[in-house]
């Protein structure tokens, strides 16, 4: 399990250098990864990366939550609707 977490963190760091995000959760039905920014949660698709003319990854979050609580509420709602 720890190897998976480390691998995901390294993958996100390679794709989005300097962003300072920490991946902590992922969906198993798509490529979305929830990342902590230090103050909010951003949802990234770590396999659908948009690059600028210089080849740098463009910061594009699928969604963003102002707090961990807000993200958790959205996750629980999504789980209830899915079930």
Adjacency order of strands in the biggest sheet: 1-2-3-4
The largest sheet is: 4 strands, antiparallel
Strand runs, count: 4
In whole angstroms, the N-to-C terminal distance is 26 Å
Keywords:
83 residues, alpha+beta, four-stranded antiparallel β-sheet, 4 strands, 22% strand
What would you say this structure looks like, in words?
There is one protein chain. The chain contains two helices and four strands. With 83 residues, it is α+β, with helices and mostly antiparallel strands. It has one domain. The protein has a four-stranded antiparallel beta sheet. The longest helix has 15 residues, at 68-82. It is globular and about 40 Å long. The model has no long low-confidence stretch (mean pLDDT 83).
Task: Summarize the entry for a quick read.
The chain is α+β, with helices and mostly antiparallel strands. It contains two helices and four strands, in the order αββββα.
Describe how the helices and strands are arranged:
Elements: H1 2-15, E1 22-26, E2 32-36, E3 41-45, E4 63-65, H2 68-82
Antiparallel strand pairs: 1-2, 2-3, 3-4
